Batch of 3 targets.
Target 1
Amino acid sequence: MTTSNSREATQTPYLLLEEAKIKKNVASLYDHINKLGCYVRPHLKTLRSLQAASLLLKDLSSPATVSTLAEAEAFASAGYLDLLYAVGIEPHKLDRVIELSKNGATIHILLDSVTQAKAVVECAAEREFQFSAFIEIDCDGHRGGILPDNALLLEIGRILESGGVSVTGVLTHAGESYHCQTQAEIQKAARNECLAALTAARHLREAGIRCPVVSVGSTPTAHRVDDLSGITEVRAGVFSTFDLFMKNVGVCTTEDIAISVVTTVIGHNLEKRWLFVDAGWMALSRDRGTASQVEDYGYGLVCDMEGKPLNYTVASVSQEHGIVILPEDDKCGPENFPLGTRLRILPNHACATASMHDVYRVKQNDEVDLQLWDRIRGW
Amino acid sequence: MTTSNSREATQTPYLLLEEAKIKKNVASLYDHINKLGCYVRPHLKTLRSLQAASLLLKDLSSPATVSTLAEAEAFASAGYLDLLYAVGIEPHKLDRVIELSKNGATIHILLDSVTQAKAVVECAAEREFQFSAFIEIDCDGHRGGILPDNALLLEIGRILESGGVSVTGVLTHAGESYHCQTQAEIQKAARNECLAALTAARHLREAGIRCPVVSVGSTPTAHRVDDLSGITEVRAGVFSTFDLFMKNVGVCTTEDIAISVVTTVIGHNLEKRWLFVDAGWMALSRDRGTASQVEDYGYGLVCDMEGKPLNYTVASVSQEHGIVILPEDDKCGPENFPLGTRLRILPNHACATASMHDVYRVKQNDEVDLQLWDRIRGW
């Protein structure tokens, strides 16, 4: 395997993406959601890459979600027009939102309090700018948002509307679905997520506030939802590459995982049956999300270079070292992995592992050369 | 507080360094080690920055340690001449080591096996290059290295020497000292670390292999060692900024910690007494090193903007959200931290938190403007 940059190609660790798998994962979820009458507003925070976004967004007007204004800036610069900044807005950030909108993009903001609504209205008046806001609804106590029946919902809606801020929609995220144990539980979480968003939208509309968009989503619920009546759009992020956490949640298989860290065996401890690899937490991240799940993959699942799982995990990491401990009863010992052997590590959490890298090396179809995709960094 | 880049200055999260504290931490350890007759070969992997390195290295010939060839390349380009790449070498990386040496720098490599020694000798002959090698010694079973009394030590030494590779030294790292419970235990680990390195050096020298350098070190043992007879140099990395993990190990106080993430309150859950801040794991890292220590700081200790600890921790994180849970019995509630409040978070692990950022904002003396320091990235 070589790349367009041959010296770089032989250097590990690096992050490998498989484009064909990403395309398959995307098509599969989009097909499911489209059949239920909605569109997907993909979360671009996992890969944070213009090239990757082009696999997720049909054209420049396709709706997308971002987690930082740095992403919004990069995607708006590339011409994308419909970006939802899905983290609660605070006043220091409003100027950047206004600046971003100058080239024609709409940057929807998110809020869930009277204080935020008042700050946005004040800025809108001062800067003579028309903001577009989503109100965040809490469906499961996971993180932010207000409960759909909370009277503050209407108060926020009225402050915004009377202040000239568009109440574009309500938004909720079933974050607790990540901890579901069964597919039935995920389905229940999906129904609950829809119910919370629909209830909030109904309250707003009954009070005369337009609220055209009803936005729900998380990768687990998006895959298991079976009724999207009344819902406008579904958000999901990690589904494009998947990871071991989502494999444990039951919404993908290890074969669907499109992201891995390529590493090299740099040493052995023969007595302890240890392999040292050059992927430490700097390449894999410190994420141990699978530790509390049905199968604990340590710091990642070891595969051969064709992507076949070898059923060993990275047991521990330091900054630039990973340690793979081979099982005692296995016929395969450290001697089967000589110095210089290349391996691939499937990550616990794609977003976290991707965040450790500045560049992706991408396998496209059957091409031998790997393409380089840049990652958007910072805030 | 403003910076040279005013828009950036008001945007959070960002990573703040306090230069005066770094200088104090560096002077304190160097003084201790110099008094014991040795010099410090600082590990530059924590901050990976040319500007930070200038606080740690007196001049271009000062010895330094790096954890990646990307660091070696950046520091060699800046003129530094004595760099130890302290991760086991594998053959694919030797060409970069040779290339790096062309401008006059010595890049010492590290190895602990006959296989590595043979590969290095083979490359040395083929490329007519004089490598400088350290042999890694295992003092506590923590990670790599061979035991000082293992007969392989001499075999490796002889292969290298007869192959024209300089055996510059032996190196050991008391990685298990991070888990010591008392200062007496750290002192014991320090003595054991020295003993392992001295024993290995003696074996090599008795066999006629020169081995001029005896290198030991870890941040805990470097601070508690009281006798360095026979030792040449001491390595340590995280001591320049320290962190909550090292505070728990007992080698610094929270006041000594020179690194923090500046964040903004972006929302509240008043019933649950939650503050939402815009520092999630993307800004803080996923490191939970203090979870198994005497005091668990969650994802970091919350301080005011003057750096005074408020005794709240970041209880949970998602990608761009942190949640601070205020205690029930505390007179200070979420209303005391209005939307837009700036806070500083001390990190569990400086190396991991720094790795999430591309740039440092540095407070120098009493200057109001923050300086920007770049971070070296990748491998």
Target 2
Amino acid sequence: MTSAQIDSSATRTNQYRVPETMKAWVLGGPEELALLEKPVPRPGTAEVLVRIDAIAVCATDIEIIHHGVPAMIDGELPFNKGFTPGHEYMGTVVRLGPSVDEFQVGDRVTVEVHAGCGRCPRCREGMYTSCLNYGYRAKGHRANGFSTDGGFAEYAVNHVNTMVHVPDDMSDAEATLVVTAGTAMYGLDVMGGIIAGEGVVIIGPGPIGLMGVGVAKALGADPVILTGTRDRRLAMGKDLGADEIVNVLHEDPVGAVQRITGGKGVQYVLECSGAPNALNEAARMVNRGGRICLAAFPSDPVPVDIAYLVRNNIYVFGIRGEGKSATHRAAALMAQKRFDAKLIHTHTFSLEEVPSAIRYARERIEDAIKVVVAMR
Amino acid sequence: MTSAQIDSSATRTNQYRVPETMKAWVLGGPEELALLEKPVPRPGTAEVLVRIDAIAVCATDIEIIHHGVPAMIDGELPFNKGFTPGHEYMGTVVRLGPSVDEFQVGDRVTVEVHAGCGRCPRCREGMYTSCLNYGYRAKGHRANGFSTDGGFAEYAVNHVNTMVHVPDDMSDAEATLVVTAGTAMYGLDVMGGIIAGEGVVIIGPGPIGLMGVGVAKALGADPVILTGTRDRRLAMGKDLGADEIVNVLHEDPVGAVQRITGGKGVQYVLECSGAPNALNEAARMVNRGGRICLAAFPSDPVPVDIAYLVRNNIYVFGIRGEGKSATHRAAALMAQKRFDAKLIHTHTFSLEEVPSAIRYARERIEDAIKVVVAMR
Amino acid sequence: MTSAQIDSSATRTNQYRVPETMKAWVLGGPEELALLEKPVPRPGTAEVLVRIDAIAVCATDIEIIHHGVPAMIDGELPFNKGFTPGHEYMGTVVRLGPSVDEFQVGDRVTVEVHAGCGRCPRCREGMYTSCLNYGYRAKGHRANGFSTDGGFAEYAVNHVNTMVHVPDDMSDAEATLVVTAGTAMYGLDVMGGIIAGEGVVIIGPGPIGLMGVGVAKALGADPVILTGTRDRRLAMGKDLGADEIVNVLHEDPVGAVQRITGGKGVQYVLECSGAPNALNEAARMVNRGGRICLAAFPSDPVPVDIAYLVRNNIYVFGIRGEGKSATHRAAALMAQKRFDAKLIHTHTFSLEEVPSAIRYARERIEDAIKVVVAMR
Amino acid sequence: MTSAQIDSSATRTNQYRVPETMKAWVLGGPEELALLEKPVPRPGTAEVLVRIDAIAVCATDIEIIHHGVPAMIDGELPFNKGFTPGHEYMGTVVRLGPSVDEFQVGDRVTVEVHAGCGRCPRCREGMYTSCLNYGYRAKGHRANGFSTDGGFAEYAVNHVNTMVHVPDDMSDAEATLVVTAGTAMYGLDVMGGIIAGEGVVIIGPGPIGLMGVGVAKALGADPVILTGTRDRRLAMGKDLGADEIVNVLHEDPVGAVQRITGGKGVQYVLECSGAPNALNEAARMVNRGGRICLAAFPSDPVPVDIAYLVRNNIYVFGIRGEGKSATHRAAALMAQKRFDAKLIHTHTFSLEEVPSAIRYARERIEDAIKVVVAMR
């Protein structure tokens, strides 16, 4: 850091007065969220303090608030611990922890969830979302809004590894969608990632599925086929780049894929529905040697035709989160306007209205897809 | 080819008089095998004629003879078509088809099953066991003993891609086991293949599982843990290199793996049992981000805890056969005496006794593991 | 193939009367090309006969015509053998060899160069452009315009593996550029292929370099930096998607890359210039752990700072041709109008004018980039 | 950590009294090493204090002491900064920094060099030896004996990521060789790592080359060919598992490889000699599509035949150090007695005799290969 940089950073720091306390939604018992005053956290080494400007509601937030799952370390539930949920946020860097020069005060950033411990075998090979020290803060692991405080608040601390710069011409609301697109990107990455000209089916037009359509098409997949039950969401998928959409209420999805591909099937399926039979259907959508990524799941065990997977040399990739810096790649495509992520942003609320935001997302009121809480 | 080579080859060719007809077991209806006289086939371009010296009985042979599965192209069953089953054979090259210089008359060879079409997208990327033209002989695909005549006979034609040289000091019987070891090797390959120092669990001490123990240990995996129900087979696994064996009749296999690994779990599981709950157990044996290869399967759909796979970022690889030239690598390890494959060879019969050989294998008479038919 | 398909194919076949002989440019001694009458070749198994509609001139054609290099098998030179050069062609399928159903008579296709033997270790792993039986036609290898007759003629035979469908709205001339874009795509593939948001430098705005710009930008690379000496070509690179262009006559290219990337360097360099110092410069453009693909080369050995490569953990990938089906991926991006390949097509000639076409390409008359010979 | 563990650890801690100061060799100007009294360092978070029990002399140590290269961050040289060199050491854990439970006091460990920053793009993808923050201690990077104090001393601090457990039956001296074997392992890894049955040439029978022989043979490579100029070292290579050795003073190494492989060449070359023509020779040892890893380098630029690399689709991997946890895999093979690393340990000195140890290593007195400084 040159002294000129330091000066400039000091000037900027003065621009952002950070109070001692902040408003934050805190989880009491299941479904009990309260807007409380809480100390503003301080960034440690390799961390920054982010003033939160916008945050989107994710289905997992709703799960955490309701069931506490996915459980934190050692099966502990997050209830009555002063925990603030929320992980799909973006904002402005207002303080730098020691040694940070990757970001400057004033930078607009959006976040991904996981900072791995950096010292387990998984982190050592770059698979930080599968950190074997998940939840151990003392060992360095952080998962914003999962095992550490998240973004339904005015401020949050973030490790530099969990942040991506936001370009000036991307709105706050759009920037909250980067992590969702990053999850879809990771799903395509783990299946091989080189998909230009290959057929890709996306099952389930939820936020990850719709972003998956945008990313897959941006990377040149062809055809990109989206299956689902809601015409409005399917139409949104079309706007995001799907070559074909299939409403499974009107056509068997496996038959539709075979029809569209002239009986060849596709190379890749990104399963984002969590439907009980989705894996079996996906297996029949891919050709021999095809690959399936599971980004969603049914809550209970379901019957799976394993013989079909083995006989057809099919690989199945369960993914947790948005690893391998996929968020950076998704952000790059969005910055280049390769697809219009904003289409899935349907509703906006204020910080005070978080319970309404969550209700809209959970109950899909007015067919809500992405509900965003905007702070300014 | 120099003229000296041609002379030598000619001399050798004269050594191997090939008759017009041969004895071959031919499949009539289900379970109907008859030893008939059949024309000796002629090798085409890139093919050779192999005089079969030994062949092992595989569980899949029994399936084919009984159910006709896995069905040939277009769902056709192999019954009453003059089909000769059997794919785990070795022998001596006695005639060369046009353009062959990879092998010489007199060479001892063992075989793998699949010669891909070489022209579909899968073959073009080297995944010839997942050939999209499976069963189309006109397009070049051959699967010995599956879609083309196999080795329960005196002679068989083989594409050069399906053959591996056998060193002088490897017996005929041992050489029939190369393809089984190759399947295990392929299973380890698809999971990443770099396993020195990593924990590997092999579920199921059948032939593939036991060869998997040998291969995994030869490549430096540690610990190699074998689970099963039969003490004799488990003990054989120990002799093949397993660091730990677990009889699941006496100890829960997931608990045993956690005990042995100090709660860490392993990185890889090679599932060779086809047991209904094997995938769910495998998922709980691996650590987060672990990998499972399915080399066997239950015949019917079984409940699978997909949520566990997704939340733990687990990858599952179904494999068909012994692709990616894994048979060559397995043969290399066996040639270097890295493990003693002969241990699993338990019984020997003559060509005339094929029905007995099959019966021993199917009913596991005298705890038969690998039953070999030796021609000389 | 259903009988309806056969009928339709028969009808189409009748549409394309194929004569017994054709006009073809034939190579005598070095630089001696003559337009002769030659028998129209017949397609064998897995081959088709293509009526050539357009062909572009490649620098390698000029090399072959002048020096005979790269030499054919066994060091044989292609002179006075009745050889027809030319490999960047496209056309219409007019006859199908036995077993072909991947293409129909009447299909418009463009070609890649290499059909591997399908039986060497390289082909078995999908690296068919590195076929170990290069030039052995008896073993199945074919390299159009290199080891087998090429496209400066009215007709040519092609293996199905070397063909890609051309969409209706892509012109003949544009379709001849697919193989060039495929080479650039292969270069990006071998370096990892997942480049969204990563910096890529392309050295050398020749045809491969310019197509590399288009492909890299289509896949989301950012920034894409093109370096060269000719402003007109650099401007063309800008139109093809380059974020930055650097004329190395006016700015040191290494310094420019460091300037543009804020001192970070890029992740990937695709070297397409063959300049003597290009590898050393590329090494200083990438960051530690970066990757360089060499798609061009100086004719003589040049000094290389190997110590720099080793100390900075740099990987260098020499590529031959357009392997791993990269041509299909490039064609898919072009079919989706992701970049305008037509920009590099500068001149057009007729079949009779091939010598002029070659002269324009060789001497860069009127700054010719891609010179196309159009047959209709 | 259970309380029982804590007690046990406390007891062990008491066993190892750690003084305030220690003896350490400190680098003054070039070639000026002095044995001084220095404070014993304290382990920070994720670090331990290691009592050094043995350390081997590496050629790089000699370079650092003489030239200061490879230069530390920002081109700074390590002279007159109180720096202690030495990186091939092993010892006993005597103190745990905060949050460490991967190791216990009393554990015997050996070390690898690099702890990456964990926050640059390279570290995030697991390439920590190519850390883009090399030398920035404030950002977490440490390279023992390069950018932070090393092991020619009584104690050294180590990040947990740089340590591997040593089994009881491995001697101190042998354990110092793990990092050398790890470098060879990394070289094989980056070339693909799946080498059973493949031909591998090792150029240069120095410590890395000889360990490369051991590792390659342990993983089933065949043939393993070692080339060099010193018969004694070549014979040692034979004892370590080389199938063939070639003294290049008596036979051209390229010709020898072609002779041994029947003209086929090998798939992989691990170049450990740094000889000026080694890369050109390696290129002619591999077959088309082959791979070369450069683990050594000539100090000045040398002529390289780039055209040969490109035309033959050869990949060249420069490696820095021993990344991707290769040290763990090498240690696992050594723990399993797959090769006898001890063979290359030729001389032993005491801490006071470090200058003699270095002299023996540098001048190859009595053909010294690995010179070890043993502390007890």
Target 3
Amino acid sequence: MDRTSLIPALRNVATRLRIDSARSTSEAGSGHPTSCCSAADIVAAVFFAEMRFDPQQPHDRDSDRFVLSKGHAAPLLYAAWAEAGAFDRAELLKLRTFDSDLEGHPTPRLPFVDVATGSLGQGICAAIGSALNARRIGSDYRTYCLLGDGESAEGSVWEAADVAAMNRLDSLCGITDVNALGQSRPTMWQHDMEAFARRWRAFGWHAIVVDGHDMEALLAALAEARATKGQPTMILARTIKGKGVSFTEGKDGWHGKAFKKGEELNRAIAELEAQFVPEPAGTDLAADIPKPSMRSPEPPPPQPMPPPAYTLGQEVATREAYGVALAKLGAADSRVVALDADVKNSTFSDKFEKVAPERFYENFIAEQVMVGAAMGLAARGAIPFPSTFACFLSRAADFVRMAAISNVGIKLAGSHAGVSIGEDGPSQMALEDLAMFRAEPNMTVFYPCDAVSTEKLLALMAYHPGPAYMRTSRPKTPVIYGNDESFVVGGLKVLRESDNDVATVIGAGVTVFEALKAYDELKARGVAIRVIDLYSVAPVDGAALSAAGRATNGRMITVEDHYAPGGIGDAVAAAVAAAGLTVERLAIREIPRSGKPEELLDRFGISAKHIVEAVSR
Amino acid sequence: MDRTSLIPALRNVATRLRIDSARSTSEAGSGHPTSCCSAADIVAAVFFAEMRFDPQQPHDRDSDRFVLSKGHAAPLLYAAWAEAGAFDRAELLKLRTFDSDLEGHPTPRLPFVDVATGSLGQGICAAIGSALNARRIGSDYRTYCLLGDGESAEGSVWEAADVAAMNRLDSLCGITDVNALGQSRPTMWQHDMEAFARRWRAFGWHAIVVDGHDMEALLAALAEARATKGQPTMILARTIKGKGVSFTEGKDGWHGKAFKKGEELNRAIAELEAQFVPEPAGTDLAADIPKPSMRSPEPPPPQPMPPPAYTLGQEVATREAYGVALAKLGAADSRVVALDADVKNSTFSDKFEKVAPERFYENFIAEQVMVGAAMGLAARGAIPFPSTFACFLSRAADFVRMAAISNVGIKLAGSHAGVSIGEDGPSQMALEDLAMFRAEPNMTVFYPCDAVSTEKLLALMAYHPGPAYMRTSRPKTPVIYGNDESFVVGGLKVLRESDNDVATVIGAGVTVFEALKAYDELKARGVAIRVIDLYSVAPVDGAALSAAGRATNGRMITVEDHYAPGGIGDAVAAAVAAAGLTVERLAIREIPRSGKPEELLDRFGISAKHIVEAVSR
């Protein structure tokens, strides 16, 4: 097909996308029409002269992908899918209303959105996951990602640049809409196109500078990107913010402003409508969108994962059990992938790498792209396990937030939780991670205390829908569960109980063993306590916790290797409040410091001694 | 002074630093001696032939600064300060023990550490703050920052690169220790020095490639950096990990491993001792360290900030009141600075910019460097207010964590909290920020509901020691406090009370007004409730809350525009648990979506209607 002949029709598509963006935001009374207008020609070219997809089957395994990293241009994205025939154009006027899925920024409530965007610098990371997935499943689908220029200040963009180049992701094509205006002022680089090109080239990308309103140049650049092998391509498109509406073109002060309905909108629409050009009769770009060109092979069916093979009392760190389990799961299910940030020998994800090196993605010390790529992989059917020290997952907190909004099944694991890591000191101790992960309403949070529960919970989180987090520990702990023990989302284990228990002590991870030590000490004094392993921190089993509390005179004590706010104490307290029960919380209450693990547990108030004291008070 | 003549003595310093690093980590039984050995020559050159400082006055206002961004090389830093005479070398053998401040990674418990490092990619951001501060106070001090090569994969490093170049920070000199080995494997770029140089040059830095073990080359590079005007310099030093100890040099598998005491350590020490060279008699590099070359002018004393000037009932968004207050405070106190991430016209920090443009630092869309630079500014005596949408502060969660460990006085502000922002949708709504900030044990958290409390609390947080966070809202809310109302850290306001109150309803920010609406509705039905404005979310006034709970039949209801875990409900519940009181929590419990603000408050369960229902249950 001679794409040049399509240009008049493509220009008309771009004009319609501008009109739709203007109308829908004006109807909503808010939104970013000028950010849509700068990118309208780009989107017209990518959707109607480049991508291979079926508008009726947006989830198709082999379809080209489009990720709108500059999520505030959502109305443009919606207009493009409407133009392609995915839904009725009239729907566009429901933009930003409660009963429409056409939200202010895109979310996967819409079938053609893989991951939620709107927090800048994330879409390009997810696009890497999408491109890695194509390689994983043996598909030739390509991934396109539209970025803003202001967005390029985000460090995550440069993490993505490194990782994409290192992986030679030539199926990935970025397009930066260089409209030179940020929200509050001109961007750092404005229209210095070479400043952009220099950066992308330095990071190993093929960079092409074009006029982003020149349809022929855009088509040529997209073709050049397609022909570029061994490296990803970034098309740097010089554009005008507000393009097509003369009173906004290149003007500061129009960011995030809808045209006022009436005169202002009418003037904008009239100007845009005047830009329609004659096109060859019978042109129907939407009808001519090419379908995916191949069917990638059906993945092999997942095999059952063999049961754990530990012996009671065996000393195994849960972080190591995590690595063992991940390798076993990876061998059984080709959808399972692992992502690392250069700590694979500490998190033991290197055990997975040995089993499935082609599904192990090293990101070096770049946690944002690690989690962002996992989001893209999950959205495309993989079951990704990104892992690092739990404290460094906070580097990707905003990605975790967007993963929750996306409701994608990323399975995060954080090792080296709490003061029990010892001498490395507070910078390496995760003491806020439970607060961070529990905050998200759809996040499953597991915190196993031994190797068997780690392995069982890992399999559970892999197949439970939505995002999940597992917290593992550095010190070795004894196996306390038999290999046939079963675990459930929202479950707990009562490890010690009698009819005479004076208190319920609830621990998780390393503090389970402090609670068991306290049990033994108290038992020697003739005092019985109930001990619970709260391996499922979110959700928690409120009914079982309340029952235990009621059975032990209403005395409930939580003990956790985590700061007090947002941790296990709060989780239990919230769950038992309706039963009229309160909770005493043993937790870390000051910034800790270096020292021996046992010393720190004791000095910061969460050792067996403190449990005994709390029970005895 | 002819620095070349110093070279033998500098080489001997480097050897001593290596020996100290080896000995101290072996004594501790853990640590990173090989990461120290690669950088020992660099540190010897910077400390003993370049920087101007007084080892006895590490906090001096005009001293050159050294930031160890690769914090795991802490033993090297400690050895350098001991070598300079800051403390007794024998202390080094207490490394990583509970009673020593020589922690596994550096923290400001030590007077010569400005900010805690150990989470990679942060020190370089703090160094920018340090360099900006020199400009602020009119000092000629220079800031040196040692990075690891693996660390350069962190996006925050490239945010820093952009911001430093944009600000033409020629007083900033970075040195990257390119030892080619990460924790778990060779780094992405290994010894491809041009890959590094290309990146830094593309980002606008002067880049110099040197052999990091060639003392003469290092001195020349440092001199070149000092002579470079108008842009920051990055010295890219090619080094060998484990340099000086033959059996570790360039070997994988030695990261983070101390030499075993006995034969292994002895062999390392013997090899290192053999590297001492003759030096000119009477050389005493420590004694010859030049003092700071100037005294910067004394800052003008802060003036009293004028009282607020609002009228009761006036409708003002707290985000706007924040901007007004910040501008007033900035006019009164030259230590106050503001940092933005291209949303100044939404957070209203642009009001500060108008008053004090020279103390307003634009970071464009790069939240990590914004917060990291604020850490450096705070460590050097400024009172920095970094602000953006509250949800995007999660991008800098790991920086907030390290700021808490550093206990530096950064004053964060997050606008557009909660579903009350409306149509923009969940990606722009902060619903986890209270959980994130409350988690840190030394963080003060304020959440004002009106303009007067915003202004008063802003002044309070500015001068309260340690890190603090203020949450502001998008919608306009009426002024309910008089301009002379007083507020305290850990305080609250009882807005409605009677002897017949059947429940205590606790809100903050926008939900205060939902609680007041509920009060009116219930009053019309003859039901009285107590209404509390919990403007201080951390710490909370547990005694006053408990008293209110007891006075209202033990019925306490919290209502917050935040997810349930880690928010106001948990804060109140933890504070009143000891009084045997439980709390019913009205909070956001699912991923929200776009819609009108009032519609969202209602649909997601935190409107007046839901409060009335809860009270009536």
